[in-house]
Amino acid sequence: MDKGIDRRDFLKLIGIGGALIVMDTGRLAGAADNKMAQDTLSFIQLSDTHWGFNDPKINPDFAGTLRKAIAQINSMKSQPDFIIFSGDVTHTTDDPKERRRRMGEAREIIGGLRLKNVKMMPGEHDAGLDNGEAFQEYFGTTHYTFQQKDVNFIVVDNASDSTSSIGDTQLQWLSAEMEKLDKDSRIVVFTHRPLFELYPQWDWWTRDGAKAIDILMPYKNVVVFYGHIHQEHHHMTGHIAHHAARGMLFPLPAPGSVPKRVQIPWDNDQPYKGVGYRSAVPKKDAYGYDLTEFPIIKV
Amino acid sequence: MTNIKYLLRIMVVISAVVLAFAWVHIARLAAETQTVQNPVANQGHEQVIKITVKRFDYTPNKIRLKKGVAVTLVFTSLDRTHGFNCPGLGVRTDIVPGKSNTLRIVPQKAGRYEFSCDVFCGDGHEDMSGEIIVED
Ligand SMILES: [Cu+2]
Ligand SMILES: [Fe+2]
């Protein structure tokens, strides 16, 4: 394999058929890369779809943006191993019936993915008002583990508890799951909220997140992916990297950059600015992941 | 007869005017007492600020404090459990209906400190916030 082209460039190549600028075109290595793609894990993180949100000033294409993302992902020549929706699948509503209607619609749209290995987890918009009851009816359990190729994935629910907490019972479960793993095995943790105190003023934290980080700390190769803040963000707690994904419907301001956390309005000159999804591929000879951020392309 | 009717009519008009004046005055008095007692009242030496909480706001939601002066915040929820979280001052509390939820603060540094509800409470929760301004 041509060492000049890394996973990230490769994913860009196979991504959305020429819609993105392809880097390193001179060193395009076809067959070899295709084989590598099959051996190496890749996944897509798509976050904060907020199905049911309908303010046209924030996103006039509130009904179409998720569908566009799904069409783009379906058109990827090489499909990733799985896709995870990292919470706030639906936009919150005080009406339990409407909440279920939104869950049902979201499930139907997500069912349009060519890829069938779909992982779901709740955000506080889905689960914060009924402790995850409706979410579980539609998408199953809210914290679980799974394995894909050589990577161990752990989904931690810090959204069902209305106090932005994981809770002691789940922390004990996390601890028990971690104990099953070697200290140097590849581990990815998915959460909705950041585990660290990014900006608690805006609920951008997890009240007992430090306890979870303590549990993860002895493991050398662990990375956290989360959503909730509707923007790309990267942070280290010790050797543990935390990567926030963009949202699907609207961006939010950088932490503390404005007096109030308000949705960033739609910009006609730059439609879909700040929204999108990402792919992740483990780095070949190092810890960590190569991330590629995909925009939504107007069609 | 007509004279009596005429007199009666005048009396009705006069009493209506007097009543209207009295009403306006009483209302103004009531409003003044409200601003005195609520939100700020004195209890012993320490200042007490009463904050009424409901989906999705705090009343008042702008609180002015003096640096180094102790104050007790007393929260009352009118509907469900909410939270009050002010990370900049390092304080938080649950606000449970039917309970008196209090926080004592002695602000050490002048500045603007955001607070927000940190118990997810419905469609509008994300706008449930306010600020404490600490002056020198
Ligand atoms: Cu969220
Ligand atoms: Fe969200």
Give an overview in words:
The complex is a heterodimer of chains A (299) and B (136). Chain A has 299 residues and is α/β, with parallel strands linked by helices. Chain A has one domain (7-295): Purple Acid Phosphatase, chain A, domain 2 (4-Layer Sandwich), CATH 3.60.21.10. Chain A contains eight helices and eleven strands. Chain A has helices at 7-14, 30-39, 65-74, 96-110, 124-127, 133-139, 168-179, 209-216; strands spanning 43-46, 82-86, 118-121, 144-148, 151-155, 186-190, 222-226, 233-237, 240-244, 276-282, 289-295. In chain A, the strands form two sheets. Chain A has a six-stranded mixed β-sheet, with no helix packed on it. A five-stranded mixed β-sheet of chain A has the order 3-2-1-10-11, covered by helices on one side. In chain A, helix 4 packs parallel to helix 6 (133-139). Chain A starts with 6 loop residues before the first helix and ends with a strand. Chain B has a single domain, classed as Immunoglobulin-like. In chain B, strands 1, 2, 3, 5 and 8 form a five-stranded mixed β-sheet that branches. In chain B, a hairpin with a 2-residue loop joins strand 2 (46-54) and strand 3. Chains A and B meet through loops of A and strand 9 of B. The complex binds copper (II) ion and fe (ii) ion.
The CATH topology annotation of chain B reads as Immunoglobulin-like
Our Rg estimate of chain B from Cα atoms comes to 23 Å
Order of helices and strands of chain A: HHEHEHEHHEEHEHEEEEE
Give the radius of gyration of chain A.
19 Å
Shape of chain A: globular
